[in-house]
C-alpha cells in the first residue's frame, strides 16, 4: 500500500521533469533558429552583416585611375609622388575639389587632418600621413599674394559714345 500512495507523487514528478524538459527544449530551439537566421546577432563585433552587405564595390576598369597630361582624371589631382595615397584617403568623404581649393602650409594641413580626425571620423593615416602632407605641400603650396606683375602687350581700345 505504501507504493500505491506514492504513485501520484511519482507521476507528478515525471510530469514536472517532462515539463521542464519541454521548456528547455523550446528555449534551445528558439535560440538555434535565431542564430541560424542571423548569426551576426551574437557577434560582438560592431561590423555586422548589415554594414558588409551595404558595401558597394566601385567598378574599376582600366580607365579608373587614368592619368592624362599629368592629371589624375578622376580627381583632378596632379600626378606626383603620393598621388594614390592622397586619392585613396582624401576623396572618400568629400570631393577632391574640397582638397584642391585649399592651399596650406604643412602645419595647417596637419591641423586640418587632426580636425577631421577629431570631428569627422577621419581614420589614423599612419605612415601615409607624411606622404599625403608632403604631396599636398609640394604640389599645392601656399601662393604668396603680392602685387601682380606689370601687364605687357596690351591692346588698348577706345570706348565708343
Ligand atoms: C572620414 C571622412 C573624411 C576623410 C577621409 C577626409 N575628410 Fe576632409 N573633411 C571631412 C568633412 C566632413 C569635412 C567638412 C566638409 C564641409 O565642411 O562641408 C572635411 C573638410 C575638409 C577640408 C576643408 C577644411 C576647411 O577648413 O574648410 C579640407 C581641406 C579637407 N577636408 C582635406 C582632406 C584631406 C587632405 C584628406 C585626406 C587626408 C581628407 N580631407 C579626408 C571629412 C573627411
From TrEMBL:
<dbReference type="GO" id="GO:0009055">
    <property type="term" value="F:electron transfer activity"/>
</dbReference>
<keyword id="KW-0812">Transmembrane</keyword>
<keyword id="KW-0472">Membrane</keyword>
<protein>
    <submittedName>
        <fullName>Monoheme cytochrome C</fullName>
    </submittedName>
</protein>
<feature type="transmembrane region" description="Helical">
    <location>
        <begin position="13"/>
        <end position="36"/>
    </location>
</feature>
<dbReference type="InterPro" id="IPR036909">
    <property type="entry name" value="Cyt_c-like_dom_sf"/>
</dbReference>
<keyword id="KW-1133">Transmembrane helix</keyword>
<dbReference type="GO" id="GO:0020037">
    <property type="term" value="F:heme binding"/>
</dbReference>
Amino acid at each position: 500500500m505504501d507504493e500505491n500512495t506514492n504513485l501520484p507523487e511519482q507521476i507528478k514528478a515525471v510530469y514536472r521533469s517532462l515539463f521542464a524538459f519541454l521548456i528547455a527544449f523550446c528555449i534551445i530551439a528558439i535560440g538555434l533558429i535565431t542564430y541560424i537566421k542571423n548569426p551576426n546577432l551574437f557577434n560582438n563585433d560592431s561590423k555586422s552583416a548589415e554594414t558588409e552587405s551595404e558595401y558597394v564595390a566601385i567598378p574599376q576598369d582600366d580607365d579608373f585611375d587614368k592619368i592624362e597630361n599629368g592629371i589624375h582624371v578622376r580627381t583632378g589631382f596632379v600626378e606626383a609622388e603620393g598621388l594614390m595615397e592622397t586619392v585613396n584617403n582624401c576623396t572618400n568623404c568629400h570631393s577632391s575639389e574640397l582638397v584642391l581649393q585649399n592651399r596650406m602650409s604643412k602645419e595647417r594641413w596637419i591641423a586640418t587632418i587632426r580636425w577631421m580626425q577629431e570631428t569627422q571620423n577621419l581614420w589614423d593615416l599612419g605612415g601615409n600621413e607624411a606622404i599625403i602632407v608632403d604631396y599636398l605641400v609640394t604640389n599645392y603650396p601656399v601662393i604668396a599674394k603680392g602685387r601682380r606683375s606689370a601687364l605687357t602687350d596690351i591692346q588698348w581700345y577706345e570706348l565708343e559714345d
